[in-house]
Amino acid sequence: MFNLIPFGLRTFDRCPDLFADDFFKTNLDNFKTDISETDDKYLIEADLPGFAKDDIEVTFRDGALSISAKRDDVSEETKGNYLRKERRTGQVIRTFVFDNVDTDNVKAEYKDGVLKVSLPKKEVTPTEVHKIDIQ
Question: Whole-prediction pTM value?
Answer without folding.
Answer: 0.64
